[in-house]
Amino acid sequence: MISITTKTLQDLEFQTVLTQIEAYATTELGKIAISQICPFTNENDLKKSLAQTNEYLASFENENVIPSHYFESISEEIKRLSIENYFLEIESFRKIKTIAEASNDLIKFFEKFSEYYPVNYAESSQITYTKVIPEAINAVINRFGEIKDDASMELGIIRRQLKSIQGRINQSFVAALSHFNNLGFLDDIKETVIDNRRVLAVTAMHRKKVKGSLLGNSKTGSIAYIEPQGTLQLTRELQDLQYKEREEVVKILKNLTAFIRDYQPLLEHYQEYLTLADTIAAKANYAKELNAILPEIVAKRELYIRDAYHPLLYLTNKTKGTKTFSQTIELDVNNRIIVISGPNAGGKSITLKTIGLLQVMLQSGILIPVHERSKMCLFDRILTDIGDNQSIENHLSTYSYRLKNMNRFLKKCNDKTLFLIDEFGTGSDPELGGALAESFLEVFYEREAFGVITTHYANLKILADELPEMTNANMMFDNRTLEPTYQLALGQPGSSFTFEVAQKNGIPYSLINKAQKKVERGKVRFDKTIAKLQKERSKLEKTTKTLSSEETKKRLETEKLEKTNARIQEKLESYQQLYDSNQKIISIGERIDKLAENYFNNRQKKQLIAEFLKLIEVENSKRIKLTKKEKVVKKKKAAVVKKEVEEKVAVIRVKKNEEKKKAALQPPKLKHLLKVGDRVRLIDGKAVGDLEKIEKKKAFVNYGFFTSECKLEQLELVQRMK
After folding, report:
1. What pTM does this model have?
2. What gap in Å lies between CA 292 and CA 467, rounded to an integer?
3. What is the pLDDT of residues 407-416, one digit of tens each?
């Protein structure tokens, strides 16, 4: 059963992710539901949740836009429906109508586009679709939030009577106003309204002359506000009708409440469904902001996250306009534990948290920012020990707390566990703490757990080099500036660059030299070796990139030159042909001009025709010879090409026959004779190492402080495994 503790969620700042998702929720209940998201305990429920969010995310890129799911909470209304004879107010019915219509819209939408949204359709199909609730409310309450006149027959009668009496009151008041105004009893304002009743503004000196009900005076006392005697009786009738109207409205609302009460369970389902829809939509919008996807979830134990980003760091840097560096990490049964080393501020902790947070997010039904070809399995437990966990309340030091945490790891760690430990073994004497940390790591390794740790301890780096299913890794640094590149490099431990970083930050060289002498010579040499290898690797990568770039440029320039030469050659040939043609035309023209001159002098037509025909015959004979010559040339060229092809085919056949003979004479290849544990070396090399692992045609050779990868046929046996 999947079980991920609150401490793990706190260490990975999972609650901050939920707070960011909450911002995309449109309802209060949706925000509350998001704040309570935690890793799923059931794998099927998890996959369903991820698929729902993924479908919502896909809807942003097509024309089938999912309808709005906005609603206001009706939790109080649902509670009050249980009270007998209680009636809901008009505002409550408005909210109920909204929630019913929103649910119906989603149900019908997912039914129509079930092929596009199969998982969300399966969820919505469990909710009853009915228009009864909104229709019942619409029959009583209009779009302005008022009870309709035809909500009941009695209410219709009362409201017609109200309109009639209001008309009579207006007529009576207008008559009194005109009468007393003509008598000059009224002030300039003539009338006003007090307590929703029209009154005459009578001057104080004439107030006893106007019969009616005194409802007040002006602040100065110069005006008396009197309701005329003629409207008093009509006003009382109006008040009686208004009371009857209110009684009838309450009766209608009670009947409507009683009707809705039967659908109380359905309303609860509606609210739960729309809350879920709001949660899914918020997660989808958050995924869109992160460029997050649903990676492939595999059954076998494998974790391959390619181009992964830490969500919190990505959004923070996106706001600032700063670049965020992605990471690619791979764990499988042949490489279960990664030991990351290197200097501080190089990105070790962020890499560790990225792995943990993305795993927790995925197991909580949240899409993650990784490459689409990423693969992830599910872990029953994710154990973390990140940050300074000094406990003031329990009087525990950082190291004591970490030991208690390691004890918890020992109790729960198994082959379905992912453990993440930052600065493993720190907090105590380096040698003793390192030894204890090494023992813990060996236990985790024996239990076949998956994990990533960060450390500066050399013994843990050496252990990772010795155990076949554990790998060293380091955060790359620029070898010149010692600035981090935030790129994780697998297969090689990282130097802490302790003395180099100290020197870069202005610490006197004499002090650094003194410190180096205090450290064991072997440890300094080991750290220097790692640092040197790391620098060489960085140089090699830069050189490779430079050479690749130069090679590409050279190839492009060569192609460009070849095309230019070809065009120039074509133009030269064209110019030569044009020149020859022009020379020929000039020669013929000169001969024709000479014939014309002779004819001009002797006027002999027969001689002219004979000379002209002779000229034509000579030119035609040249054409015939040229045609024959071209045919001969073509035949010779074809013969030469055929001969060349036959010669090449013959050479290839000879080579193939020789290779077959050699293969038949040669003994079986060496790769079948080599075994894990043999002492081997490269055929053209001198360094001897242990053959640590063979994968397909690749071999991994341990040379002590580092492991090298090469082709199996490149190795030769030095000493058989004892």
Report:
1. 0.66
2. 35
3. 888 888 888 9
